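Need tokens for this chain, all 259 residues.
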Amino acid sequence: MPDPGFQRVQQALADHLRDPERFPPPANIEPRRLAIYRRLFYNNVLNLLSNGFPVLKSVVGPELWGRLVRDFYRDHDSHTPYFPQFGEEFVRYLAEERTPRAEDWPFMAELAHFERVERTLLNAPNSRRSARTKRASDPLSGVPSLAPQARLLAYEFPVHRIGEDFKPDQPGEDPTYLLAFRAGPKRVRFTVLNALGARLLWRIQEEPCTGEEQIRRTLDDFDLEQDETLYRQGERLLRRFRKLGVLVVSAREAVTAAH
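Here are the structure tokens for all 259 residues:
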């Protein structure tokens, strides 16, 4: 059975390392050693997040970046002990837990999420289907779905344009829709979508049916006439994404049987 006394000392040390201004260290630990531990733990977190979010780091500047990391390290209770997943914890902290400060940029949570997507897709598995699943190559007559290495994204800020020369303090007039997908072993591409294209891919992701039906339903969503020109635009979009590997297409009867 764990020693309660040791556990109290361990907790006291952990509290002190995360927030030395608020929590005193356990008794009988040499101050020099404590200083080494404080630097070691904080620098590990700092280096990990700096490598994972280089754009956000450069945009907010070294002083604010250091405070962001320090606040995260002090205030956030991580749900995972694994360092490779630490970036997701940081995104969650910015989006759900951090109380905005006067010096914060309003786009920080979205920019962090945008940067994290790239890392996630680089580690995503290749698209695979069961041997029993019937394949189809035509995204119109077959049932398209998003490949595991693709993500449909929507942001209030144009995150793909944010950098040291562009730091918006207000959301865009319209949402920013992006398609992110892995284009090689070490490359992720981002494509800007209009509202129609984003809605079409959302339907593909949420409500499986044939590509032909997806286009027609998307046009209905916008109260657009079933215009042949608009239909052809949707057709070209599906064929393009199929060619890029963004879409995996299954035969209609195979999807029906699976459900």
